[in-house]
Amino acid sequence: MINGPYIEYMKNYAAILLLPVLISLSTYGQPNVLFIAVDDLRPELNCYGASHIQSPNIDRLAAMSTVFNRAYCQQAVCAPSRNSIMTGLRPDAMGIYDLYTFFRTKVPDVVTLPQHFKNNGYYTERVGKIYHTGHGNRDDALSWSQPAASMWRPEPVTRGDTVGLERDFPAIDDLKLPYYKSHAPEKNMTDAVITEYAVNRIAELKDSAFFFAVGYIKPHLPFVAPARYWDLYDPEDISIPAVETPGGMPPLALHQFGELRKYHGIPAQGLLDHETSRNLIHGYYAAVSMIDAQIGRLLNALEENGLMENTIVVLWGDHGWKLGDYGSWCKHTNFELDTRVPLIIMDPDNPNGQSSNSLAEFVDIYPTLCEMTGLPLPKHLEGQSLVPVLENPEFEIKQVAISQYPRGKNLGYDRKKEVMGYSIRYGNYRFTRWQLYEDPDEVVAYELYDHSEGPLATQNLASDPAYVGKLKELNDLLSKELARYSTGTSP
User: Fold this and answer.
1) Which entry of 47, 78, 330, 370 is annotated as an active-site residue?
2) pLDDT tens across 384-439, in order?
3) 310, 314, 344, 406: most buried, per Cβ within 10 A?
4) What gap in Å lies between CA 360 and CA 427, rounded to an integer?
C-alpha cells in the first residue's frame, strides 16, 4: 500500500514537472490587442445609423463588437486626445492642451498603455499615427518594443504644369488642395502603405502575444482618396448643413476653422460657398470609405492567420469633426459634434454585435484593456473599465463624460491660455462652463444645450428662466466631477 506522504510527494513532483507547461499554456492563451486609430473620424458611419456612408468593413467589425453610441474624447484636438488615451490621464493631469508639448516633459514617469503591456510580457509595436508626432511633438520610445517603421511618403510626383502631385498632398502654387479625386494607384497612398506593412506584421506576429497599434492618417485633411471611393457617392445626394449657430451661443464657443483656411481656394474669413462645401463633404466621405477598406484588410489578416478568436480589436477616432455644421469646419470646440467619437470594441469571448448608450470616455480604454487581458491596473488611471458594458450594454458606468478646450489670449507661459471651457454630457444635456484658467472661480460664460433631438445644438438654454434649476444641477455636478480629478474649482 502506498502511504500518504509518498502520494503527497508525487503530487508536488508532478506539479513541478507541469509548471513549464502551465506557464506555456497561460502565455499562449493571452489575448492579443489590435489597436486601430483613425484621425478625424467622426461617428458618421453606417453602424452608427448613417446609412448614406459606405463603411461595410467597419460595419463587419461592429457586427461582432460593442458599439459605444455615447463615447467622448477628453479634448477635441489630436495630441491632447491621444495623450489621454495612451496615458489614461485627463489633459489637466498632464497640463497639456496643445499640439506641441511632448507628454513626458510633464509626466516623465507615467506608464503608457502599450508600455504597460510591454512590461507584462507583450510585444508592442505601432505603425502610422498613434501619438501626435507633428508640430515638434514626437513618438514615445518607451511604449514600443521596437522603433516604428516610417510610413510617411510625401515625395512629389509632377503631373501637368500647375499641379505638383504628392501621394497624399496634391498642391497648386505651393498650397495644398483641401480635397482631390486621385487617379494614382491606391498602393501609393500612405494609409495603403501602412496597411500593407500591418498585414505582413500580423502574419509574422501570430505566434506572439502582441499589442499592435495601427494609426491611419485619413480622413484628416486634405481629403485625398482614389477615384473609386469618390464614385461611391453621388454629389447630388450630399446636403449642405445649415449655417445657423445656436441662439445665445457665447462667441468663444465656436472658432474660425483656421486649420482648413490654410488650404488652396479656402477664403481667409467668412462662410464657404455651397460648391466648395459639397466637394469637401464628398472628399471626406471618400476618405472614410478608403480607410474602411484598409480596416477590412486588417480583419482579413486576423482571419487568415487564425487570430480572430484570440484578438481584442479596438477601433477609435481621436475626436469628432464638423462638416459645415454651424457654417464651421474641423474640430477645436466643446460641442457635441467635436467631442463625440466612434468607439468600437471587439471582445473575442463575446463576438456578438451590440450597441450601448452607456457613457464612455477615452480615459476608460486603458483600464478596459487591462481587465480584458488580466493585467494589473496602474494606480494613476483616471478612467473606469468598460468591461461591465461589454458584458451588458445596458450597464451604466458613469453619470457624465468630461471634455475641455482652452480659449483666449496666451498667458505667456507653458502654452497656456486665459480661459478653459469644461463640458459635460449628462443625459440629454451638454453643459459647458467657461472659466479663467488662473482664477477658476471667475466664470466667463455658460452653455446648456438639450440634445434630445440629435447632436446639433439649436439654442443655448443657460439664460432661460425655465432652466435655472437644471443649470445649477449641472454646474454643481461639473464641480463635483472636476474635484475628483483635482482640476478646476467652481464658483
Assistant:
1) 78
2) 999 999 999 999 999 999 999 999 999 999 999 999 999 999 999 999 999 999 99
3) 344
4) 13
Q: How far apart are CA 231 and CA 368, in angstroms?
A: 39
Active site residue 132: yes
Q: What residues have CB less than 8 Å from 394, skipping those under 6 apart?
A: 356, 358
With 0.90 as the threshold, say if the pTM is over it.
Answer: yes
* Helix, strand or coil, per DSSP, at residue 212: strand
Residue 421 near residue 444 (C-beta atoms within 8 A): no
33-393 belongs to CATH 3.90.1170.20: no
Domain boundaries, the chain: 1-30, 33-393, 402-484
Instruction: Give the span between the Cα atoms of 111 and 99, in whole angstroms.
Output: 20
Question: Nearest to residue 298, comparing CAs of 204, 208, 199?
Answer: 199
Judge contact between 146 and 202, C-beta under 8 A. no
Cβ neighbours of residue 186 closer than 8 Å, sequence gap 6 or more: 192, 226, 228, 290
How many residues are there in the chain?
491
The three cell numbers of residue 176 are: 495644398
